[in-house]
Amino acid sequence: MIAGSVAGTIEHTAMHPVDTIKTRMQALHPPGHSGSMISRSSLREVLRTVVQKDGLAGLYRGVGAVAAGAGSLLFASVNEPRISRFPDPFADGCCWGTIFLALNPRALPHRPAHALHFAIYEWAKEYLGGHREGLHPVETAAAGCAATVVNDALMTPVDSVKQRCQLEGSPYRGVMDAIRQMLRHEGIDAFFKSYRTTLIMNVPFTAMHFSVYETAKKLLCHGLGDETLRVQLVAGGLAGGCAAAVTTPLDVVKTRLQTSGATDPAKYEQTAVLPTLRQIVREEGVQALWQGIKPRVLFHIPAAAVCWGTYETMKNVLRGN
């Protein structure tokens, strides 16, 4: 759990500026709004615009929400009194102790989403036989999908707040102000508007990501010998980039749903994926579904490399290796 928390926090905070650029390129703005030109701008032009208008701090708007959701409260879990009653959660690939801590009601304020995500992934991979010798892409893909369903339920509200704060001309002063205004004007549904879309996007994303990572890692280890940090970084970057590129159209739909109503009246009456996707294609063309693909891939290659490298390193440290 601690390994997953550290990995998630470092991944999201380090790459947040790139995610801000991606969000601004994908978000819809009313005609005449300066943000309506961003989606047709290059990566460098968007970066220049953000820095000129909002300063370097503009690249980090909303980072507090995603850092907390990803795992900034991880150290509180160290003091959980029941953790010592369970075996080493990483012993022999097992994660029962971590699963208990994640589901313990007393630990509710300290359940970082990434911690739970990696805990469920390790347990499911062990249960499905992913730890056996050889390549098991189906088992690791299924384990990743199981973890994603739980992770997205926790991270979708966080991501909604983060993306609204990232918008150009965002009406919110910060994370807490965004939460208050969303609750007051749109209700609790505003936080989960894109949950179905997020699941539809992240299930194939995670399936490809985790299966490519585990497969690439074993193939690289077969050629180089021991599993080193370099192997983990290369495998992680490859997995993150491939999964990000393939699922970009669904990410555009998710961004539109999460930011709809923030700077202009809500444009999408339905929260279903296909109707929203058809509306985007009908009004803006197919190319609109690929907006932000460059920053999205540039985000996920180093983010996945850092995340997996940190996670695997932390597991070894906690095991005493």
Describe, in plain words, how this protein is organized in 3D.
It is found in: Mitochondrion membrane. Belongs to the mitochondrial carrier (TC 2.A.29) family. Keywords: Membrane, Mitochondrion, Transmembrane, Transmembrane helix, Transport. The protein has 321 residues and is mostly helical. The protein is 65% helix and 0% strand. The chain has 13 helices and no strands. It is globular, with a radius of gyration of 20 Å.
> What characteristic shape results from the CA principal axes?
globular
Q: Helices and strands: which structural class?
A: mainly alpha
User: Which segments are poorly predicted (pLDDT under 50) over 5 or more consecutive residues?
Assistant: 30-38, 71-111
Q: Radius of gyration, rounded?
A: 20 Å
- Total of DSSP H or I helical runs spanning 4+ residues: 13
The count of β-strands is 0
Distance between the termini: 17 Å
How much beta, percentage-wise? under 5%
N-to-C series of helices and strands? HHHHHHHHHHHHH
Q: Averaging pLDDT over every residue, what do you get?
A: 76
Main sheet specs: none
Membrane topology: Multi-pass membrane protein
Solcar repeats: 1-87, 135-219, 227-317
Organism: Volvox africanus
Family: Belongs to the mitochondrial carrier (TC 2.A.29) family.
Produce the secondary structure layout.
Layout: H1 2-14, H2 16-26, H3 43-54, H4 63-70, H5 96-103, H6 113-128, H7 137-166, H8 175-186, H9 195-224, H10 229-246, H11 248-259, H12 273-284, H13 293-319
